[in-house]
Amino acid sequence: AETHYHDFVIQATPVTRLCKTHSTITVNGMYPGPTLEVNNGDTLVINVVNRAQYNATIHWHGVRQIRTGWADGPEFVTQCPIRPGGSYTYRFTIQGQEGTLWWHAHSSWLRATVYGALIIRPKEGDSYPFPKPKRETPLLLGEWWDANPIDVVRQATRTGAAPNISDAYTINGQPGDLYNCSSKDTIIVPIDSGETNLLRIVNSGLNQQLFFTVANHKLTVVGADASYVKPFTTTVLMLGPGQTTDVLITADQPPARYYIAARAYASAQGAPFDNTTTTAILNYKSAPCPAKSTSVKPVIPILPAFNDTATATAFSKSFRSQRKALVPTEIDENLFFTVGLGLNNCPSGSSPANCQGPNGTRFTASMNNVSFVLPSSFSLLEAHQQLIPGVFTTDFPAAPPVKFDYTGNVSRALQQPVPGTKVYKLKFGARVQLVLQGTSIFTAENHPIHLHGYDFYIIAEGFGNFDPNRDTAKFNLVDPPLRNTASLPVGGWSVIRFVADNPGVWLLHCHLDVHITWGLAMAFLVENGVGELETLESPPADLPLC
Ligand code: C2O
């Protein structure tokens, strides 16, 4: 196994999109940032230097970080932020994961432009569980604001209203042909007739679930979230922010140019969304030269309707683990968390300018009625490891405080979230089952729920309220998919299982950043086991303090 050394300099860089130039926070002046390529078993040592005017951290999304929780990255959870002018070296080893992951800033809304791909190939001497593709292309789907994303979220936090939606979707940082001023920079993906390409697709967007397709081509899904799946063929993918999907595409169509395209899956009723489409071009090498034939438009794909939940759900139910699934059959912790949005009454004494949500409210979000608040004086992990009192409490509830018809037509009075920094404590090795139950207070929505430090099996999902008597029969304990981000169906539930074998403090949150901003998060505190191999390592000497 190799060790890879990298320098990441977080800095402001002028970036021009949609005819306008913005001072944009990037890594090494690149947007998207550098692609990391490693083999399973390799170690990464990344020295992050912060030359921007904002606090920053980097999270290695999906990396298990076994015993190396100090390198996970979410600010105030596993470290204090790297201050402007500061630096921190992240050091971790890839253990047993293969496929596509990614990295992104985990501080305010910096990740809008601070992100990149992490490609993990099989161990030296091992091979893919599918024929080796001729080429591999990472495709990072993103969102671009014609504004500073940090200003967008600050304004929303101040007013209590929903933040502005993005102005373009992007593929590898480019909006593509269908947007103003973007045509000449459209991303081209070359392919030869008959050749197979492995597309490594990441939804690195901030707030939008996306459908993805390639005109006239079949996509064979072979992996997701750096775990292999039993191959299945589709024409449309749906990815929530945080999720990755690896697909094989074969050039079996007449030589031409075909659009690769993504646009919104807008699951929430009535919520504003951007109905534009981002494109790249799959370009057959023997196709008429694009420079001389600009009149020949690429083949346009068919994308599902914006609210096509049936397609989104059918896609997410097609995943089966390729490797032997090690699902715990017995459980020690049976948890039930509600997941959803809400509206808080305007706090007494506050000005109407700060309560610009619907009917003079402020938007909020919660799990089990707790709206998560990050600490500010110590990170949760530091407070846990050094027994610093007063930073968090361990009373995060295992079940909702009141039972109600979660997905029915319910009054918001049933859930007025209480702000808190509460964690749920797990014994080392505990076998956990967690029911994630969406709620329809304010509006129901598909939530991409991400767990740090773990992969988990998604053993069932469905619509409406989870009913143990009816739904336990649907559990797949044989070959459920292993993921780090679950797409919780709109107005529905998912059941996940994992073994708490990685000590540390691990965030569980909705990967729509606007929802984290509103508090849709909690953290698990996993205690050390016995012996060194079951114990969190000591913090690195350069760990940023608050
Ligand atoms: Cu990809 Cu907590 O994040």
Instruction: Report the biggest beta sheet as strand number plus sense, adding barrel if it closes.
Output: 6 strands, mixed
Total beta strand runs: 32
Helix content: under 10%
Q: What is the total number of structural domains? A: 3
**Mean pLDDT across residues:** 96
Give the neighbour order of strands across the main sheet: 10-9-12-17-14-15
CATH fold title of the largest domain: Immunoglobulin-like
Name the bound molecules.
CU-O-CU linkage
Per DSSP, the total helix count is 5
- Architecture of the largest domain, according to CATH? Sandwich
Radius of gyration: 22 Å
Basic shape: globular
User: DSSP strand (E) fraction?
Assistant: 35-45%
Q: First CA to last CA: what distance? A: 35 Å
